[in-house]
User: Fold these one by one.
Assistant:
Number 1:
Amino acid sequence: MHRLSIVLGILTFFSSLTYANIIYTQDFENPSGFVDTTNRDVSGQTVNSLYGGQPDGFFFAQTNSVETLNITGGQAFGSGYQDPRNQAGNFIIGLLATDLLGLAFNVGNNDFLNIGIDITSIDLNCCGGFFVNSGEAPLFRFSLFDNPTGNVSVGSGLRRLDFFDALGTESARNVVDFTNFVFGLDASDSTNGNVILGIDLINGTQTYAGLDNIVVAASNVEAQLVSEPGSAMLLGLAIGAMALSRRRKLMSY
């Protein structure tokens, strides 16, 4: 499925939710001053330095070296990254299992954040890689943290409001093969609406994966659909059953 169809499907789904308000979209297609710091289509520049032109009130935070990958650069793995389903555009974000990425913002008076995102197995042939074990699929944890002070940081000491675990699919080291997820996170227990959406790769201590096409909608209705690869067109049709992998707890990070 073409990248534009995926994004339009997600937006159609969110706009169909009662009281849904799309407050944020990010496809990572317009980094400011991207530099291939590795000669392998990989930049180690911070996410905020490349994507500083965020909407008012939205800020990235990261722990360790979250990378931006140039999918069309032609240098990685000798011939560049491959995107056979034309899903990724030019750039995606890559994380090691030791990295954390966060997005800080205010959810307002809404009880839920409905999130749409694409994840993929991907690897590096630089920077100490390979990192992905053969047959390994990416497992991401998307956590919503209370952030009453409004600090732009991600890591220990934050109270977790809710989380969702998303398991992608295995692919070759240099191949983008997105699985699209839509899920709801409960923000009703936030202190003053300030929250951080934390993104963490949790399968093992030495692995790597990518993500792209983030959509955030604030709502009083919780999205309950998790789509499979190639089924993003279904997002505008119905709200399905919540994935069994979902677990909700109140805890510290």
Note: Residues 3-240 form a domain with the Jelly Rolls fold (CATH 2.60.120.260).
Number 2:
Amino acid sequence: MSTKNLKHRDQRIHDALDTSGVRHRATLKQEWPLLALLIFVWAALWQDFSPANLIFGVIVALIIVTLFPLPPVVLSGRVNVWYCFELFIWFIGQVFVASFQVARLAIFRGKKTRSGVIAVELRTDSDLIVTAVGHVLTLIPGSFVIDVDRRSSTLYLHYINIESRSDMERAREAVRDIERRVIMAMGSHDEFEAIKHECGPILGRVGGKK
């Protein structure tokens, strides 16, 4: 079967297991957001947004993406503004709550606080969603991603205040809840429908249309 005929998840597995030395890279059309960001960073570092410097930034950006190619990230083609807003508000709240919880553990338990490393296999097979979930987890105090298994969409996390199996399951459910929120915000239509089916029809009514 040719690479073009592989489905998204199969392509990710194919990329991860490929030992031929041929790297599947993104097209210029897929990389334009990265190019735009690199050009902006170049101009900002030089504090010079003149046409000449921007043109030179384009050259530098093209050299970077050519010498250090990244695999293509397939976008879902769906963004729900309401769920994005809901995710943002929830995230800000979690940062504040987790900050106080970590501070309380540091003050009242100190070195007695136990931590653990847990593995959580996500529902999604999208690199974008896996990355977004990992960033959200890392930005919330008390947890951070230490490794990712791209083939199985598994996150390996260091989690604070883990003392029993029930604590581990609680942490896993928290991760899956973050994944659900991210999928509702910008997951594919298929993932959105799967989450609605899993979590109940109420999710389909909140936030209006997909």
Note: The beta strands are 115-121, 143-149, 154-160.
